[in-house]
């Protein structure tokens, strides 16, 4: 076979176009094909050698090592001492991570639930007393605060919407008091919802992972390959779905998505609690939308006209796609605001205007105090007006002062839930303590006059005392 040299090729390329056309009109395609082939060979000969399997695995290994080394300083151990009614409290350990340089830490609510004391241990084994900033049992998120002498390392939060099933997942925490344990797996699923409400309303958006997590991992981060938090490790589901024990457990792990964590954590830092809208129904998902299983008497859905068996197909003009999303829409609705709910009833579409209320304490996972004077004398439970209320209640302003009614014990109470009490018998009230002191002092009264503010405006009402 004849061998072509580059000089010959270059010489051939220099042939004048006119001469080439006269000699053979078919030379050009053949020559161009040969030049392209030679160029490809030369280009391939100039590339670097492909990495070996070991080199490729070494690069992946280094990526995991780098994530662990960068992330570990921002991951903390949490020690809580839980009250048990016994002479000694019960010690419980979990994990968490630093959310802000000024000492705010994210963890699970169940890690610090009912704790009398909370301590945080950093990577250098220094221990700080932690202040509980706020908790949200509905999502199992809690925020702590420590006062460190200098800025602390933090972990950035990823956008969990961009997380893909199959990508790497790295869990770091303190299982069985084995500090800063690193395990690696993949994202096995997204958008999981597996916990029943059972009294408390759950808001769930779990990322499923096969990265090994266990007792003590709760509150620690689930990271992507860039060292960003895609979720907070929260629970494990056993293969037989049996209750948790202290034994080593195997099963799917679940982390609260970072977008939900960021939303809740930011609100807890700003306000110390989460204010959610409430409709007052039990429900189940059906193909058409959300079927109303029951309606709580004197709650927004009941007062707005919804009935058992209605199928909710749209909320404020948005088509219902799944129950979790619908619950989020209600929770984010302003208290006192009107929501348009479209339902199917007996085959016909109907629209109801429902005034959203604040979620009651029991459904929000907060204890209800029933030993107060206000509860016994007025049949109500109140709280102080807080920062952020003006954003969540349509009828409040930043200049308002008073106490908000959380629950009313009487049916058809003259003081409905969500009402702001600003004065009693002309005396301004700014805290539950002032309300309690007034009621205790005025034992001779049979009724009182309250100045209130609600979605109906401001008014005075006369309320009999339960004496």
Overall strand count: 27
Gyration radius, to the nearest Å? Answer: 32 Å
Number of H- or I-type helical stretches: 11
Which strand-content bin applies to the residues? 25-35%
Give the uncertain stretches in residue-range form: 1-45, 243-247
For the largest beta-sheet, the strand count, sense and barrel status come to: 7 strands, antiparallel
| CATH topology name of the largest domain | Thrombin, subunit H
Provide mean pLDDT, rounded.
84
Number of spatially distinct domains = 4
Q: Going across the major beta sheet, what is the strand order? A: 5-4-1-2-3-7-6
The CATH architecture of the largest domain can be named as: Beta Barrel
Shape: globular
Fraction in helix: 10-25%
How would you summarize the topology of this molecule?
Blueprint: H1 6-13, H2 17-23, H3 27-45, H4 53-71, E1 75-82, E2 90-98, E3 104-107, H5 109-112, E4 115-121, E5 127-129, E6 131-136, E7 141-145, E8 168-173, E9 181-192, E10 206-209, E11 221-223, E12 229-237, E13 252-257, H6 258-271, E14 277-278, E15 281-285, E16 290-295, H7 300-304, E17 311-315, E18 318-319, H8 323-332, E19 338-345, E20 348-355, E21 357-358, H9 373-377, E22 380-384, H10 389-392, E23 403-408, E24 420-424, E25 427-428, H11 432-441, E26 447-454, E27 457-464
Antiparallel strand pairs: 1-2, 1-4, 2-3, 3-7, 4-5, 6-7, 8-9, 8-11, 9-10, 10-13, 11-12, 12-13, 14-21, 15-16, 16-17, 17-18, 17-19, 19-20, 22-23, 23-24, 24-25, 24-26, 26-27
